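For the sake of transparency, this paper describes our internal protein records without simplification. The tokens are whole numbers drawn from a learned vocabulary of local backbone shapes. One such record is reproduced below, unchanged from the form in which we store it.

. . .
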Amino acid sequence: MFVKNVWYVAGNAVECTHTPLARTFLNEKVVLFRTASGTAVALEDRCCHRFAPLSLGDVEDRGIRCRYHGMVFDQGGQCVEIPGQDQIPPGTCVKSFPLVERHNLLWIWMGDPALANPDDIVDVHWNGATDWPTASGYIHYKANYQLIADNLLDFTHLTFVHRTTLANNAFPNARPEITSFERGIKLNRVIRDCDPSPLHGMAGKFNCKVDFWNRQVWWLPSIFENWAGSVPTGDGEPHEREGGLHLRHFSLLTPETEQTTHYFWLQPCQFPHEDAEMIERVGQGIATAFAEDRWIIEAQQEVINRSPEAKMRAMRNDAALGRVRFMIERLLEQEAQGARTIPITQVA
């Protein structure tokens, strides 16, 4: 089961063109395309006539034309033309989904359209901002989105999975402060006077001990915001000092099916130097790190598939992921009862 009354990332804005794009979200097949005026549209990928995929069709001035019998559906999903038939019967339409283009991303609402408030969309304005060089990428995971969430919420794995990229030997003993709020949880971690991770050392050009910080937000059910950085060891709050490396990371998970996930990631950066080419090296490092995650998480999914009756044993460092799993279960219960899923609350 999936939480439906939330905004999910459907893709990067540049992916949506006049050529139909087929994607599956929360087990529902969707076609994405732009109208002649440039508006991004999301419709059910199934003609209501004989169920041919609309993603095989053609985008025209009035909408998308089914390639099977030529019916045309406008951006709201209403049929506006039936070849060889003057009158269009009532109810001849396909489902449309609220779609918002913001921060260079497309955000889709798979639940009750009446509850779709664009003010609920998570703020990722750093993505491609003038003073934030940004690396980004996409991974198609053969794993349930909650397994990926578990990975993102427990940084003790960095030491063992990411030995050449994100590893920091202080992580296993550096427990974060965890605070809940209506839309998720916040985590805060500071590690002082430590060796920089390989990625931070490269990106910040540090050859000294650093103070490291994590200020994270998990937005229910599946968006991870991680403001992390390093600065040469000194006095005061690390993230407030000059000369620091700032990484404003977002992992945006959109369930495709119970065992597959769309994983979009953004890595806006601010560097303590003027090396404009560093963002490419950071992007390569992040892509390498996420390939390391994918290897272990997809193997984990295979084990679960073979032994679905087996139960995982919780450990001390599972506190954050355990809390998020509990909150998601609560949201699913609320949604099943017809309640609005997540209140509108922003985090400073």
About this structure: Helices lie at 145-153, 158-161, 198-204, 278-306, 319-336. The chain has two domains: 7-118, 122-336.
